[in-house]
Amino acid sequence: MSVGALTLTGLSGLPEVLPGGDLAALLAVSLATLSPATAAADVLVVAQKIVSKSEGRLVELASVVPGTRARELAATTGKDARLVELILAESTEVLRARPDVLIVRHRLGFVMANAGIDRSNVPAPAGHEKVLLLPVDPDASAERLRAALGARLGIAPGVIISDSFGRPWRRGVVNIALGACGIPALVNRRGETDRAGRALEVTEVALGDALAAAAGLLMGEAAEGIPAVLIRGLRTSAPANSARSLIRPLHEDLFR
Amino acid sequence: MSVGALTLTGLSGLPEVLPGGDLAALLAVSLATLSPATAAADVLVVAQKIVSKSEGRLVELASVVPGTRARELAATTGKDARLVELILAESTEVLRARPDVLIVRHRLGFVMANAGIDRSNVPAPAGHEKVLLLPVDPDASAERLRAALGARLGIAPGVIISDSFGRPWRRGVVNIALGACGIPALVNRRGETDRAGRALEVTEVALGDALAAAAGLLMGEAAEGIPAVLIRGLRTSAPANSARSLIRPLHEDLFR
After folding, report:
1. Which of A14-28, A68-82, A142-156 has the lowest mean pLDDT?
2. How far does B80 lie from chain A, in Å, by closest CA?
3. What distance in Å separates the CA atoms of residue A177 and residue A186, rounded to the nearest whole number?
4. Which of A59, A91, A215, A249 is the most exposed place for a label (fewest CB within 10 A)?
5. What is the pTM for the complete model shown?
């Protein structure tokens, strides 16, 4: 017997997203080609890169003047001092600096490499290399995108903005939810019991991160260019909350 | 335009798995009801609990005599000293012990709470409570299960054995791959370039963990009882490797 089915559909063929570009319009055109039509229970997972690009979060490296701390960390890590300057400006704390490694606490609370600043996938002429910062407020970006999709499509799917993250004890990256709107990013199962009537040992489920990881199976990182994935068939009655809910508060951090 | 589609189908209605039970036979019966038939490119994600049960990894708590170290850690964490004794026996190192928290390095290398030992979902009369340990070698379990499914179905899907894990800096659990066979659990993308021709910054993708997380969207933890999920439509040409590949080597651990 089979129950429960999820389908994931990658959206591709989106035009290059430009600073100030109307990302919702591009996504709505692509979503409108799907059959059946997008439903309110669907979840659209969008790659951080195209959200950041549409929000103009590009910085030309040549415009950055690194300070003393950035030059020191650049020497330690072997990274470009201008890039390190931007990483520090986006962070509240440096957790680890080693050759090729710079792990920080991003100003939004994410513990991540390089404050999420990407050098790849940003085309530019030599000497004008640009890098891409995370959105200023990914939950707010998700909320705006969801509202704009609702206005264009008549219905508003849940929206997740995702990015790939490393993990301290496991190799390889997986996608997580940087921002979310209209979905339960964190599900509280406290008080539920298992089939034997015992209280569940696991009381919080990172649904937003699992949705992002699933979408990552289609997104890839490179030439295939699938920057958004629609997930259908998710059944949950948990209340919606933001991706901010997924960030462990500092006072619970056992691994600083 | 849409490209790439994945479907996830939950298998339910499996009979209770008993120690020594033929898990492959139960799963093959369920898979045989699916249309179209299971293909070699499909991936079957199986919950650790039913694998451990079929392998008889149950221990009656009343049979455990806690040693000094277990009693000390039980006092620190508020956990049952017999459970802590089992956790220590399954671990090589205690990383953090706090009230309600015991994070260890499992003998297989996983950094996880309670060495993955579950108390829930194991029915037993009062005074005879049993707990469930991880499989002795989850990669080997996946390999045996895959071979047995191949013998029964004529084809062998990829197999992942998954369990839910906490994360140090994010709330909520997600599923990861404890064991794998016939899939590229870790994909090496070194040497690939993005659309702008730049080398990818992300060079290793934890495909096995992303597949497990996706399956977790249907599995849940409790009464719904979906212990296995078939994922179809994955396209990858990367070579297969084991879930052991996903464990970061100790000398790379920056967060002990």
Report:
1. A14-28
2. 14
3. 10
4. A249
5. 0.95
Cβ distance A214 to B217 less than 8 Å, yes or no, reads yes
Both tokens assigned to A227: 């920057």
Q: Report the pLDDT value the prediction gives residue B1, as an integer from 0 to 100.
A: 46
- Write down the residue that tokens 């139960």 correspond to: B26
What does the DSSP assignment read for chain B? -EEEEEEEEEE--PPPP-TT--HHHHHHHHHTTSSSPP-TT-EEEEEHHHHHHHTT-EEEGGG----HHHHHHHHHH---HHHHHHHHHTEEEEEEEETTEEEEEETTS-EEEGGG-B-TT----TT--EEEPPPS-HHHHHHHHHHHHHHHHSS--EEEEEEEE--SSBSSBEEEEEEEESSBSSEE-TT-B-TTSPBPS--EE-HHHHHHHHHHHHH-SSTT---EEEEE-----SPPB-GGGGBPPGGG-S--
Which tops the pLDDT comparison, A233 or B119?
A233
User: Which residues of chain B does A213 touch, with a Cβ-Cβ cutoff of 8 Å?
Assistant: 174, 209-210, 213-214
Q: Taking CB atoms and an 8 Å limit, are A211 and B217 in contact across chains?
A: yes
The ipTM assigned to this model is: 0.95
Mean pLDDT of the A50-70 span = 96
B4 phi-psi bin (left φ>0, alpha ψ -120 to 50, beta other): left
CA–CA distance, B101 with A147 (Å, rounded to integer):
40
Q: Which residue has the tokens 């599923």?
A: B175
Q: Which whole number is the average pLDDT over A217-241?
A: 86
pLDDT for A14 equals: 86
Q: Tell me: pLDDT of A222 over 70.
A: no
The percent of residues in chain A predicted with pLDDT above 70, rounded, is 94
pLDDT score for A55: 96
